[in-house]
Amino acid sequence: MATRTCFSTFLLLVVALESIIVMGITLPQCRPIVANDDDQIQFALNMEFLEAEFFLFGALGKGLDDLAPSLTQGGPPPSGGRRANLEPMIRRIIEEFGSQEIGHIRAVTQSVGGIPRPQLNLSAEAFAATMSRAMDTKLSPPFNPYVNSINYLLASYVIPYEGLVGYVGTIPSLSLVASLLGVEAGQDAVIRGLLFERGDETVSPYGLTVANFTNRISEFRNQLGMCGVKDQGLIPSADANSLSYSRTPAEILRIVYGTGNEHSPGGFFPRGGSGRIAMQMFQ
Ligand SMILES: *[C@@H]1O[C@H](CO)[C@@H](O)[C@H](O)[C@H]1NC(C)=O
Ligand SMILES: *[C@@H]1O[C@H](CO)[C@@H](O)[C@H](O)[C@H]1NC(C)=O
């Protein structure tokens, strides 16, 4: 009898544990939203704008307003972007990424319609704030993404990866999304590769290595996303088609707003994202 009670208690425990695990994956803040494909693809444009402007400014000192003004659909110019002090090879790569982003925004705009470029904050201060939070310490002097290649790559590791997971969260089987995903995954792999090569280098003057930074940044993204571990540092990147790495729009906004709250804009999007999905969340 005692054994049976014990066994049923054990069974109950297993069932309880299982439902906790199941609840864990369907926590309200982690559920996929109900939205049509066009809205979801347009949502990803927010991240494309952020990447496009950050890459173009970093490489060239100018952005969409100079290079492809019609794509901005009248959205306000970004604040605080500037030409970064990059090694020639890195500058060429980043310029290429910027051109790819222009191509993405154009492709999405032609296929499902564009959205106005959201207000973006690309200032060194916005990156410093995010990086200090990620590193869980007030970095002094404040982190500046524009001063050298390592800092720029670390900053690229903070944001553009969200462009990739943003698409994985949509419908990967749509051919447009599939092709954009391929390019985003390629960019992510290149940035990871460049950082991985430099993993043991010190990020001056903080006395921490590149690997220290990337590990913390990954933890931080998981923390703000609040839906479990979806980011594992410089371990070879997730397969672009692996849904295990997908994030919902709300998770992405919690990260890029830096507030941990999709209803409360801030960080790189001081007035919030553009398009139906993002705007509904802060209204
Ligand atoms: C950009 O972010 C910095 C740091 O948080 C802030 O001081 C600045 O006012 C922001 N600029 C805009 C246009 O929101
Ligand atoms: C930085 O990385 C080294 C080597 O992996 C580790 O021993 C050290 O604890 C890390 N420091 C911080 C602050 O994370």
Task: Write the SSE topology.
Blueprint: H1 2-25, H2 37-60, H3 64-67, H4 88-112, H5 124-135, H6 149-158, H7 161-168, H8 175-197, E1 202-203, E2 208-209, H9 210-225, H10 249-256, H11 276-281
Antiparallel strand pairs: 1-2
Helix pairs in contact: 2-4, 2-7, 4-8, 5-9, 6-8, 6-9, 7-8
Bound molecules: 2-acetamido-2-deoxy-beta-D-glucopyranose (2 copies).
One 2-acetamido-2-deoxy-beta-D-glucopyranose binds near residues 208, 209, 211 and 212.
Describe the structure.
- Helices cover 57% and strands 1% of the residues.
- By secondary structure, it is mainly alpha-helical.
- It has one domain (39-282).
- It has a two-stranded antiparallel ribbon.
- Bound molecules: 2-acetamido-2-deoxy-beta-D-glucopyranose (NAG) (2 copies).
- One 2-acetamido-2-deoxy-beta-D-glucopyranose is lined by residues 208-209, 211-212.
Label the structural class: mainly alpha
Total domain units = 1
> What's the main sheet like?
2 strands, antiparallel
Query: Outline, from the CA principal axes?
Result: globular
Amino- and carboxy-terminal Cα gap: 59 Å
Q: Spans with pLDDT under 50 lasting ≥5 residues?
A: 10-25, 235-245
Order of helices and strands: HHHHHHHHEEHHH
Signal peptide: 1-24
Protein name: Desiccation-related protein PCC13-62
Keywords: Signal
Pfam family, one: Ferritin_2
Task: Supply database-style keywords.
283 residues; mainly alpha; two-stranded antiparallel ribbon; 11 helices
